[in-house]
Fold each of these.
Amino acid sequence: MTVTVEGVRIGYRNRVVLDGLDLHLGTGVHGLLGPNGAGKTTLMRVLATVARPDAGRIRLLGRDVADPAVLRQVRRQIGYLPQTFGYYPRFTVREFVEYFAWLKEMPPAGVPLAVDRALERVGLLDRADDRMKHLSGGMLRRAGIAQGIVNDPRLLLLDEPTAGLDPEQRVDFRALLREIGVDACVLVSTHLVEDVASACTTVSLVDGGRLVFTGTPDELAALGTDPGSGDSPIERGYSAALRDARGVRR
Amino acid sequence: MRRQLRLELLRGTAPAAALVMFGASVWMLAVHQDDWAGRWAGLASWVRQSMLILAALMVAAGAWQAGRERRRQIGDLLASTARPAWQPMLVAWLAVSLAGTAGLLVALAGAAVLVGRLATYAGGDWWWTLAVGVLALWTASALGVVVGRLVPLRVAAPIAGLATYLGLAVATYAPLGTVTWLSPVHAGWGAERLVPAGTHLRQAAWFVALTALLLAVAARRIRVALVCGALAAASVVPIVTGPLPRRLPADPAAVEPVCTVEGPQVCVARMNAYLLDDVAVVLQPVLHRIDGIPGVPARAADEATAPPGYSMIDDDGTIWFSLLGQSKALGGLERLDWLRASTDSFLARWGCYDGRRDEGAYDATVLARAWLHQEPPYGDIPVDRLLARPLPQQRAWFADYLAASRACDSTRLSELARVP
């Protein structure tokens, strides 16, 4: 397993955000769904080793990240695009991605080629020498994805990666996800269930800090029997899964 | 790491820091050119006096650079990467420090060209003063990094800069003590004063240890910070037990007299020798006019050449003058009136002050001063009438004036004021 999360609990200002969450992910593209405030972003931050859980155990790439030496090695193999993607506006796109290659401790000799490859994969090679501040919202997101994949991560965590992308770019992006997911574990947190339906091999649904569903997109879609609870099968499945989970909790 | 440093130098706070430091340095050089013109030691000392502003700017630049991650909301992204946080922090600090120093040095290079044209003395270990000043700037930017990383406010940088300025100002205007050496600012104790090499070394050690401590605190490396803190504390001890700034000796080579070889003798310190011709033009005619009058000065000398503890109030046959704040960047004297006032000082020593206001005595003194400097006639002071006489008669009038003034003979002074 690339990601093993067991009984992770994390609180913020007297509120439990993740409540004994378990998650197991292997190679492939995985979707993370859930309503606002469900704990998706917190889970992504925990998996990106940015936030530390109050309790529970996390193994990434088969290793326990509680050990600082292990953590550093694991981080070299992680790619992360946070929900709020900050950037340095005066850097060019190439400089920005190159800077993150350095932060990820990539061997210097391989950096120029890796940067060009990452930019090509997100379709930004022709804008490589533009300043970040001159990019549109969608291009910025793609630059963010480029920094996430520059080190060919074995674990790629993308929090709302398709926000700001136009339909054509989203199609290209899904293809990129499928390509990366062949030999890496990709976890995509999103509100857009269509992205999950078309790009992900499995889907996990989080609500109230707990994992309430894990399965394939088809299995999620199969839960949706009420035609009034969504426009597509997977939306109806999403609503049904949430309804079931909340009903059980009550 | 070289590529990242280059990147920070081009794209970080560094270019702005360089520009601001350059602008501030040029402005301060232009406003205070009389402090440094023609003297290498003066230029180095000026850098240290300007630390009040320059260090504050470096603190603000360091804080602004270090606050970038927070302003750009990029903290999560950085925290997920493998490289320890202190490494990009160190690169960014290095870039700001290098750029700020470059801004200062470029401005100084321009000033150095002007100083090089004039300077007549290059000794005095002034490069130590400059080098320790640069170290202090790096300490200032490290302090800024601490503020930028620990204070989550957008206004942290300007407030830190202002607080540094105020703190250094208070330290500068406090009574001089050994603690003064802990501050990067020199109080401006004269270009001829020699700061001992040991003091420079102790200051350098203090700033290096303090910089390491600040960077360790900024990187939250507690053990390293404790070690650096101990080193910084250890470096303070020899400073506070060392020599006081107010007891600095004069550099003997800098104050060695250089004198005119023709005409009445006028001497200046070697470090001021480039002003000798300008000073001689003013003072030699005065000395020539009073030549041969009993008891009047026969020479003029720069106060810097006076032996330590020498009293220049005594009537020693010398007109003492000061060249502090007297030089222009391109050469020449800044304030001729100051120099003339120095030549008048011996008149004051001979004057009669019994507390009464005596118009006649006053007019005679004004006339004597006007005659000394061959000033054009003004008011009802008949200087033109006096100057129209042959020189021996003018000297005789001046000798009479001095005798009457010494004797407090107001009747005679009133007569002399009318040029009988």
Amino acid sequence: MTAIIHPDAGTDRVGEQARYNRARRVRGLSDRSIAWLFVAPTIALLLAINIFPLIWMIRLSFTSLNLSMSYLPTRFVGLDNYSDILTDEDVWARLQTTASFVICSVALQVVIGFGLALLINRQFRTHSFWTTIILLPMMLSPAVVGNFWTLLFQPQIGPFNYVVGLLTGIPPSSFSMTGEVALAPWTIVLVDTWMWSPYVMLICLAGLRSIPDYIYEAAEVDRASSLRQFWSITLPMVMPFLMLAVLFRAIENFKMFDMVNLLTSGGPGSTTELVSITLKRAAFEKWRTGYSSALAIILFVTVFGAANIYVKVLNRVKQR
Amino acid sequence: MTVAAKSTAHSVVEASPRGKAFAGAIVTLYAVIAILPLLWIAATAFKSQSDAIAYPPKVIFQPTLEGYVNLFTVRTRQTREFIGNLPPATTWYDRLVRQHDMVIAGPSKVVPRFINSLVIGFGSTFLAVLLGTLAAYAFSRFRIPLADDLLFFILSTRMMPPVAVAIPIYLMYRQLNLTDTKIGMILLYTAVNVSLAVWLLKGFIDEIPREYEEAALVDGYTRLQALRKVVLPQAVTGIAATAIFCLIFSWNEYAFAVLLTSGDAQTMPPFIPFIIGEGGQDWPAVAAATTLFVIPIVLFTILLRRHLLRGITFGAVRK
């Protein structure tokens, strides 16, 4: 047996000992206390800014508090706010609008994003440059995006209507993308798709690149057609990634406020009034704090519940 | 010989040249169409008021800096004689404004709003990354009871719709006199960003081999020294990427800003839509503000290219 002995080992004993002693002293902080010391500030901040307000909001949701009429005594109303909301047809209509928006926009983003990912994965020359260009919209501020698309959608002066006019022959000033009941829901879907298809694309691309080449090589040996390869290799292997993208997009779009608020602010009428906009109106325009707290809780439970179910499904897909 | 022959044969994994050309054409077409709205805005910033609202929309126009001048100034309309009696314009922007029978009355609010965006953005990013690094290190290296539950709790705070979060925050801030203050916004954005920071940084720190620190500990370093001298230098890229993601979030955030600020702490996103000129939105000025606001994001996106995937999936997908 050979041991590697450091040449200075004998002479440096004293120094070693001193260093070790000093280390021990400073080490007074055990790993355990360091762990708590490091985690505590984050948890404390989240308790103060997220959890405490949440608990406060749950309490408020059982009251009649209205900030525009704060001279009225705040009464405890039990579950009245909740039953008001759940029996209100308008709220259900807003939830339906939101659901349609989420489903249409996410579906379009999946088709476009996955399609782009498949094409980019062919690694043509300059693919990395164009990928970066394609990714830009999703990095922008949704509010600023909503705002500048209102310029692009102006019936007279906007380039969008003009181009549509050139392509279809419809007079550009005869329709308004943000002002017509029939078009406005599609307008918010369109802008959201423009902004977020790259997101799905990027995640799908990671999925495609995670498939090892040898699987395709084996399929080729077995003379599987390329359609067959797509259905039985590419799609199942990308599926967990795709579902992750869908989960993230669906949650984000369920919460959607900024882009739509600036693009249509819920109009015309209430055709694009997503539930976040309803909530904002109840809380910050009508100042019905008790009522809007209850609505906020309902939304939170919905997102949370849906996300949990989805994550379970996702894990099952991953295991396969 | 068969191996060599195979390498020159058509690869099953790589697309054929025709397939590549087709893919390239479609992707390029999509990219060009997708980028056009942004280019249109950048161009509108250099249009005159009348060119910006011309029909049909103008692609070729005489560029002018009017939009930028209007963005940074407040102007009043005056009579020709009044302007004639003024001392001659000394600067190019004075001259530009006077051509339209206007006089510059003072600076606009855009600079304070821009500074707010910077202060709140950098303040919240610094705090979130600081707290996030400590927590991520602890989650990565120590046994913490219920670690998975805590991590999920940290993430779940981000699932709340911002408008829903804003309701109790508004009430709380009113009590604490934090409404429309920079410090209030910094705390709020830190709380939102810290969840991202913890999740991303935990991923980055997990990738640094423990052996490095253990060697340092054996050498007599304390935990904190090992963190500072061994782990942090290794994690620097990850920390920078995380910081940029936090900065982008704070920079772009609108819902909290519009609901909780009105003046002193207002950032750019709620401000830009309200840049108005005579009779409606001053589109060249709005476009100028949008351009200036978006340029940093474009640069960051290019810088972040390699870490983008991690950032947008909370570290769930790495490459």
